[in-house]
Design brief:
The chain is of the alpha/beta class. 43% of the residues lie in helices and 19% in strands. It is built from seven helices and eight strands. It is globular, with a radius of gyration of 21 Å.
Length: 209
Amino acid sequence: MKSVSNYVLSALLIMCSAFATAEVRVAKLPLYFFIFVHDDISAEDRVALRGNYISWATKEIEGITGRKVYVEYIEHDPSMTRFAYPNENKEVALQEWTSRVDAYRLSHPQPLNKRYKYLLLTKHQLNASTLGVAAQSNYSGIASIQTFQAAAHEFGHMLGATHEAAQTSYIGGWWCSTIMGGYSPLTSNCYIYSDGNRKAIADYLKNTK
């Protein structure tokens, strides 16, 4: 009888441990991406934004982090979606955009932590050589829809990913660049972050509540 009781007790302890582990996994808080759709993006282009530029990227980030990504699209907000982003100095453009984001956050009370990111999605580039810009391991960025991976690239910067950890891979009979790689007409988009950048993103959010 004693051995049966010990067996039952052991089984209960294993079950409790499993439930506790499951609870920890569920407890990971989600990420919130606020995407401001610039007024210069046409109605036709807006139809394809989610599928071509955002959904595949958020799915990749969810797989890396184990966190749900909630995306809110903000359109026709004059203080945000008419922002004059073209600038020969990308750092100045980012600084001015970040000031807009800070003002938006004050008028829409939101916590300033690693789980909240703010991206301006634009039709054109910032200048002839700049498709996007973002504050490294921070919360604000700008990305053009001139390439499918620009938005994911800038979200990557905000989540701790780097150019240095990017890779070029041979997949499906052609060379492709992982998301943080440079933009080149000679390679396709792998639609994934490299292993090194997956680790960087996971580490960035590791202790975030």
